[in-house]
Description:
Blueprint: E1 7-8, E2 16-18, E3 24-34, E4 43-51, E5 55-60, E6 64-67, E7 71-74, E8 90-91, H1 92-96, E9 100-103, E10 109-119, E11 125-134, E12 148-152, E13 156-157, H2 169-174, H3 180-189, H4 192-201, H5 204-211, H6 216-224, H7 228-237, H8 240-247, H9 252-261, H10 264-274, H11 281-284, E14 291-292, H12 298-305, E15 317-321, E16 332-337, H13 338-343, H14 367-376, E17 381-385, E18 391-396, H15 397-404, H16 409-414, H17 424-438
Parallel strand pairs: 2-7, 14-15
Antiparallel strand pairs: 1-10, 2-3, 3-4, 3-8, 4-5, 6-7, 9-10, 9-13, 10-11, 11-12, 15-16, 17-18
Helix pairs in contact: 3-5, 5-7, 7-9, 8-10, 14-15
Amino acid sequence: MSAPTRVFIARLAGVAVFDPAGDQVGRIRDVVVALRLGQRPPRVLGLVVEVQPRRPVFLPITRVRTVEADQVVFDGRLNMRRFQQREAETLVIGEMLDRTVRLREDDSPVSVVDVAMEPTRSRDWLVTKVAVRRAGGRGALRRRRGELFVVDWDAVSGLSAVEHGQGAAGLIAAFDRLKAADLANIIHELPEKRRVEVTRALDDERLADVLEELPEDEQVEILGQLDVDRAADVLDAMDPDDAADLLGELPAEQRERLLMLMEPEEAAPVRRLLAYASGTAGGLMTTDAVILPPDATVAEALAHIRNPDLDPALAAQVYVCRPPTEPPTGRYLGTVHFQRLLREPPSTLVSGIVDAELTPLRPTLSLDAVAAFLATYNLVAAPVVDESGHLLGTVSVDDVLDHLLPEDWREKALEAAADESTDPEEEALRRSAQEREEIG
């Protein structure tokens, strides 16, 4: 095996994993270890690798050929059966980072920042070092509070015990580069205690993005674990249509309380969306469209759709309306598709290039009718306009798919059915490792 003498595990999060042919099969999510009796260092059992579509699988450490800063290469084949954590196994990133442990030399508290593993001559890997940060208390005179330093595994105690109130900064930092959907998948897989700690530690914007990618029952569960003021702040940060969908799952009294705590300018569009029946254009739409007055130029329109925070479907067109340009707007004049914007001089007024031929959607239009409209005209989004000609919002194809798919599609995507085939070698490796731990 070609590998550095020491690998800090948190730095492996998100590293690409390649098969023997050089094809990327996934990315590292975590490292599985087996704790041992006494002060002996834990044995590394393998890696949790996330493959598409968002499925965690187990890669035995004995198959790992090379470990580098930007890639891991393995021998043999990767069993695609879904990884299921066993009782005797511990996830380093998910469960060890941010724990408060104690230095054996003076019993002073420290926080775990990272954990290092090293290969042995027998091709095993052991967890040998712990990177910790001084938390204060006895012994702080020898090491400054807040100082980061590395100690041997047997120099700390408390990593094998269940900790209540464990932090989450280290885990969040390890997965900082992940897309919201991928982080949602990781949170979905965490033990309940750890899931609560992590979601509480995320900032409002990040938690809002993650909630939008979780099944509705988990959204409700997580929101209910926050204090009401924090829950209202997270709802403020969500897209109005997603916030309305989540609030629609709550009892009326709880929903109204949260709406009252939200910022008025954020709550107003959510209230309007809640007024429409589910499965209609009004119930599907969002108010976060790109809306410009008729005297705006092509250059201004392009500047708006370049916004990296804008959903790609919503950036596909600009809606031209008379003031006010916040829904419900003044009279809707038409749509300008982004391809048309690319073909026009920057100084051209958007009012001169609008597509006014397509009849906009009405808010009471059914889900099936909306889907048929988008399919007929090859659109990724369409405007929703009331009988008086005011733009109320826009329905995008992802909103339609979200409602056309079975209600539990997110949960099924997160918990993809495992391949029934088993890999005897993998099972033997894991079973053997556990049996060795049981006999000490």
